[in-house]
Write a structure and sequence with these properties.
Layout (H helix, E strand, L loop, with lengths): L16 H13 L4 E4 L10 H9 L6 E6 L4 H11 L3 E5 L5 H8 L4 H13 L5 E7 L8 H7 L5 E7 L3 E2 L2 E2 L7 H11 L21 E2 L1
Parallel strand pairs: 1-2, 2-3, 3-4, 4-5, 5-8
Antiparallel strand pairs: 6-7
Length: 211
């Protein structure tokens, strides 16, 4: 999060609930069977339960998912599940509270972990956790994230940092996929990728990690 924050889109420029459902129907009509609500942050919308419920009424739509920062899951998840939410992805780039506060410029790491645990208690199996790996920030936590799966039924998805600044490609913080795999192999030599489905955008491993 930049120091100066981000400029929020004015409400008149946001899609209404009705517009979202209308667009979703058009996509489902063309064969789409899964819709993911992401952002920005989808949980800032007060109508999120209504959106999910309406999406689940669309014939032919099999799955509704969200990708969230997880900050308000403990407050909203029960309602979202009742509305029909099928899958949860939580974005979490560190397992260290102080580092979380540094990169997000807010407190709340404990709330995110509590949100993940609540999702597991409510039967989401697995909960998917997205971690963007960055040089000089969290590359030393790759093994810790793998171990995080030992006591929780979560799938970790390690994501390469996308180093765009304007139209320039910068690689100062980039940790390539092969480097991540090398770190994991140093601790677990028998760690190997599984075969991926044709539509997968990540490489899945037998210990339920994605790179």
């Amino acid at each position: 999060m930049p120091k100066e924050g981000v400029k929020l889109t004015e409400k008149p420029h946001l899609l209404t609930t009705e517009e979202i459902i209308k667009i979703a129907r058009l996509f489902v009509k063309e064969g789409v069977s899964k819709i993911r609500l992401t952002g920005g942050e989808p949980t800032v919308r007060k109508d999120l339960p209504d959106i999910i419920f309406s999406l689940k009424q669309i014939e032919g739509l099999k799955t509704v998912a969200i990708t969230t920062n997880g900050l308000v899951l403990t407050k909203q998840l029960v309602a979202l599940q009742k509305a029909g939410l099928d899958i949860i992805n939580v974005s979490l780039d560190t397992l260290v509270a102080e580092k979380y506060e540094k990169i997000t410029r807010r407190k709340g790491w404990n709330r995110v972990i509590m949100g993940i645990d609540l999702a597991l208690q409510l039967g989401y199996n697995p909960v998917k956790v997205n971690c963007v790996v960055m040089k000089d920030f969290n590359e030393d936590e790759i093994v810790d994230f793998v171990r995080f799966t030992k006591d929780r039924r979560v799938d970790i998805r390690f994501i390469e940092y996308m180093p765009f600044t304007g139209n320039k490609w910068e690689v100062d913080k980039l940790i390539p996929y092969k480097s991540m795999l090398k770190v994991i192999h140093a601790v677990w030599p028998d760690f190997h990728p599984l075969d991926n489905a044709p539509n997968d955008t990540s490489k899945v491993t037998k210990d339920k990690l994605a790179l």
